[in-house]
C-alpha cells in the first residue's frame, strides 16, 4: 500500500489498484511516463517480478502497477507541475520502482519523497536519490 495527501485528504492505493475514480487517468499517465522513460533510455528489469505473469500481463504492466507509482501518477494528474510529491509505502521500494522514480523526478523536474519500510528516499530533479542507490 502507498499513501499520499491530495487536497487535504489521504489517498491510499494498493498495487494494480483500479478502485480510484481516476483510475483510467492514472494508468494513462503511467503509460505516458513509461514512453518518456524509454525515450530517455530506461530499460524495464523483469528480474524484479517475483511471480509468473498472467496471460494478459507484460513485464511493464506488472512493474508499473506498483502502488507507489500509481500514487505518484495520481499526484502528477492533480498537480501537473508539482514542486514536491510525498509518498508513504508500507513495504520496501523495489529496484525497478527506485530506478523508475529517479527517471520520473528527472522528467517531471520535481522532488519526490518516498518513505518506505526502511528509509526515506528523496529523488531529485537531477535523477539522483538521497540513498545513493543503497536501497
TrEMBL record:
InterPro entries: DYW_dom (IPR032867). GO terms for molecular function: zinc ion binding. It comes from the Eukaryota. Residues 41-134 form the DYW domain. Pfam families: DYW_deaminase. This is DYW domain-containing protein. It comes from Rotaria magnacalcarata.
Amino acid at each position: 500500500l502507498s499513501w499520499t495527501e491530495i487536497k487535504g485528504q489521504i489517498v491510499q492505493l494498493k498495487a494494480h489498484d483500479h478502485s480510484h475514480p481516476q483510475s483510467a487517468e492514472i494508468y494513462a499517465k503511467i503509460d505516458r511516463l513509461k514512453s518518456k522513460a524509454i525515450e530517455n533510455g530506461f530499460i524495464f528489469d523483469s528480474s524484479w517480478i517475483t511471480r509468473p505473469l498472467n496471460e494478459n500481463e507484460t513485464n511493464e504492466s506488472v512493474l508499473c502497477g506498483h502502488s507507489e507509482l500509481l500514487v505518484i501518477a495520481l499526484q502528477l494528474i492533480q498537480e501537473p507541475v508539482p514542486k514536491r510529491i510525498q509518498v508513504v509505502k508500507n513495504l520496501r521500494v523495489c529496484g525497478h520502482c527506485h530506478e523508475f522514480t529517479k527517471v520520473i523526478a528527472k522528467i517531471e523536474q520535481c522532488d519526490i519523497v518516498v518513505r518506505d519500510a526502511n528509509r526515506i528516499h528523496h529523488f531529485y530533479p537531477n535523477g539522483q536519490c538521497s540513498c545513493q542507490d543503497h536501497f
